[in-house]
Amino acid sequence: LIIHGDKDAVVPAKDVNTLVEKLKTQKGIIIEQKVIAGANHFFDGKVETLLTSIAAYLDKRLKTERKPAA
Question: Which of the 8 DSSP states describes residue 11?
């Protein structure tokens, strides 16, 4: 999971997109990218949105990776 804000002045969106595209070429790597509207590099005023995004991602990944007990 790579999350960044669309108002990030430290790491430009084009650099994040370049990284994501390079990572997607790696075998066995699944990259999910999310952009948080209005968020800067430190997610000022957007921390709850950030935490919600992280929690949803972890719930999804852990749910699909867990195998039910037999």
Answer: S
Say if CB 2 and CB 33 are below 8 A apart.
yes
Does an H or E element contain 35, and which?
A: strand 33-36
**What is the Cα–Cα distance from 34 to 50, expressed in whole angstroms?**
10
Q: Is 8:40 a contact under the CB 8 Å cutoff? A: yes
pLDDT exceeds cutoff 80 at 49: yes
Angle at 30 between CA 4 and CA 46, to 5 degrees: 20
What's the whole-model pTM score?
Answer: 0.80
Is the distance from CB of 43 to CB of 5 less than 8 angstroms?
Answer: yes
